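User: Fold this; tokens only.

Assistant: Input:
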Amino acid sequence: MNRKERRSGDKGAARGSTSRAPAAARPIPAALNARTLVAQAVQLHQLGRLAEAEGLYRQALALDRNEPDAIQFLGLIAHQRGEHDRAIELLQRAIAIDGGVASYHSNLGEAYRALGRLDDAVESHKRALALRPDLAAARFGLGTALLDLKDYAGSAKELAAALALDPKDADAHLNLGIALLELGRGAEAIAHYEAAIKLRPDSAEAHLNLGIALRVEGRFRGALAALGRALELAPAIAEAHYQAGLTLMGLDRFDQAALALAEAARLAPEMGNAHLKLGDVLRLLHRRDEAITAYARARELEPARPDALIGIGRAHLEGGNFEEARRWFAAAVVLAPDSADAHFEMGHSFQLQGRFAEAVGWHEKAIQLEPDHAAAHFYLAKDGKAGSSIERRREIERVLALPTLAEEQRISLNFALAKVAEDLGDYDAAFLAYRAGNDLRKAKLSFRPEDFTAHVDRLIEVFSAELFAAKAGLGNPVPLPVYIVGMPRSGTTLVEQILASHPEVFGAGELDYMRQIAYALPKQLGGEAFPECVRRLAAPNAKAITEEHLAHLSALAPQAARITDKLPSNFARLGLIALLFPRAQLIHCMRDPLDTCLSCYCQEFAHGQPFASDLGHLGRYYRDYERLMAHWRKVLPSPVLEVPYEALVADQEAWSRKLVDFLGLPWDERCLAFYKKERLVRTASFWQVRQPIYATSVGRWRHYARHLGPLFAALGIAPPPA
């Protein structure tokens, strides 16, 4: 966050020249000539003609070697040229001659601040204000020095006072915005940045700071617009690209975020955070080798920070390499024993592997180090054995009451509290907490049900029976990929875990490849957006796309006969999948709509699913999903196995055999003991799929029926009698 450096040669020069009282007891003719020269020099100084101004100041000193204005203005020129030690020497000399001029002390404070001597800067500005309490430059300088000292409350007080004296000071608005944002007063910060922009519409810095504040407040689309304007004005500001990358991550637009963060790292190769966040987004895009390279660069730049070690560990963890991941997490713990994140990640690695008992101690240590560590509370609550107790509920409630919590922490803690309350049988309290978390999350996201409805309309229009007939034989007939689709929380993780327990199947989890293919198609095919561009798909394009995709899949498990991708939202891409991979196995997981939608509402998704934070939106999304699946049943040339969740949990063996048979593989008894399979499960169901089949989630909605009015209405289902 860049703080505005006030140039002491403009406003400061004018104030300095008019603030001192005339000195007495000097030879009148010489003093008059010296002061006349100083007045002429000030005009040149204000025009930025420093060399000419300096010459006149020196001529004035030749006439009167103790002329303090000439001395202090030479000090200001030295300050402007970056010669701060020389500036301090000259300003101290001017004060020794006449210590009663407030602006001398204020300008000395600015020179001290430029050298990082912040305590001296504060004292100089205070001396200026003791002499002249209404000197706006001294209020600004004191507020800015306190800002550098991280005394945000004191800074805000002084900068507000500066604005009371000079409401049109854009720099004061900018710095006050920074202080307020640090104090958690984001809405006020935004107002001051907007005021600065009114005063300086073409200030890239003002637009940048506005973008930062909007992002911190979760207003991502507004933030992106402000940052875009900053980059229009100054395309080479690395910080603006960095902030745009963070904002795009908040919008789950990871492809674009990677581009923005890579540009920030290119423009500012020494910016450790740019490399660190680039690693994060590359990891989310499953580009793990590139992510590790970015983390390694961040580690080179800032070897004392544990973040890069944690990032490398996460990349290995998401590749299913538990031991290598824990080696890096352990290194982070050694480097930073007080890092709650390092302890949390170690616990999380055990949890994702199904070793829940070993995870508990690490998560509890994370909370001991950082009592408001929301993720540790959340994942302890997710552990059905360790997380639900009256004591845990009271601890989460205590942390939620803290006024200093960031919004993301508050969201996670509300979901953790809801899970604990639900496990304790307090369903009304649980729903209130779920609603609180969802309301906060919804405010950060943007979902318009009508947009998704329109998208489904376009998919149905483009992917017609005629299109499939016209493009038959276009794709690669390899049977390697298996796509498990459906609504989130419909049983996709359970189905994949059953199949991944077969020795010839590799469960790859939720892969982003098909979304990336659809995202890139318009550029590859030219012209129209997806899905309309699919009409242009030809054999050469299909060959290149499928070969690259199969190479990615094969690299995950070279010996596997089948590789599953269980990204639920691929239900919207089944038409594209059927064109590209006509022999891919397609499995559709189905579940009662009320249970499905409630389960989505009660889940804090790490990324995506913006429809899930509103019961009405959920119902409308579900109906569009049903409408699209009905269309696929009519037109897809590939067979689809539909697996009802309720039937699967009622007769696991029969349905497990159907699944294995559908993949064209011999039966293996290990599929019945799927919960014993040690593999990475990154989805929200990581705890459930480590347990034997249970049916307690069937009909879960009945506990919450009195709260589900908007969902009943959106689904077109009559609510049960009260």
